[in-house]
């Protein structure tokens, strides 16, 4: 007998169990997706708050080029990285907030 046939013994029970399992998995997946979306939104808000705080600190410190000005300059030149001086042995890099910008490490010196 074919196990998929409705006339097979236990075929209906097996099909019902599979449908129930699929439904449970779908519900868990939807809940997980909603949770991830919420956490991503929260993280985006935290990043934006951090950017604002850093910009405020830079203004308070008397740094002429604020983050917004640097981003404007960077995007007007078409580059993803900020103007920084290389330093031997350093692997830190200034990274753009552009979503498609490269994230490779570079040799640089943080200017203060």
Automatic annotation (TrEMBL):
What are its GO biological-process terms? cellular heat acclimation
Which InterPro entries does the UniProt record give? HS1-bd
Q: Return the Gene3D superfamilies for the record.
A: 1.20.5.430
Is the keyword Cell inner membrane assigned to this protein? no
Region annotated Disordered, chain positions:
65-112
Query: What start-end ranges are recorded for coiled-coil regions in this protein?
Result: 15-60
Provide the GO MF annotations for this entry.
Answer: transcription corepressor activity
Key words of the record: Coiled coil
Q: Which domain of life is it from?
A: Eukaryota
The entry's cellular-component GO terms read:
cytosol; nucleus
Give a Pfam family name: HSBP1
Protein family (similarity comment)? Belongs to the HSBP1 family.
Q: Which PANTHER family match?
A: HEAT SHOCK FACTOR BINDING PROTEIN 1, HEAT SHOCK FACTOR-BINDING PROTEIN 1-LIKE PROTEIN 1
Q: Can you name this protein?
A: Heat shock factor-binding protein 1-like protein 1
Q: Write down the species.
A: Panthera pardus
Q: What is the lineage of its organism?
A: Eukaryota, Metazoa, Chordata, Craniata, Vertebrata
């Amino acid at each position: 007998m074919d196990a998929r046939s409705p006339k097979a013994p236990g075929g209906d029970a097996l099909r019902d169990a599979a449908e129930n399992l699929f439904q449970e998995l779908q519900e868990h997946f939807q809940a997980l997706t909603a949770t991830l979306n919420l956490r991503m939104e929260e993280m985006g808000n935290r990043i934006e708050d951090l950017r604002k705080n850093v910009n405020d600190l830079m203004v308070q410190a008397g740094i002429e080029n604020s983050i917004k000005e640097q981003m404007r300059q960077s995007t007007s030149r078409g580059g993803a990285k900020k103007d920084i001086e290389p330093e031997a042995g350093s692997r830190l890099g200034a990274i753009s907030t552009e979503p498609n910008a490269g994230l490779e490490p570079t040799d640089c010196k943080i200017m203060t």
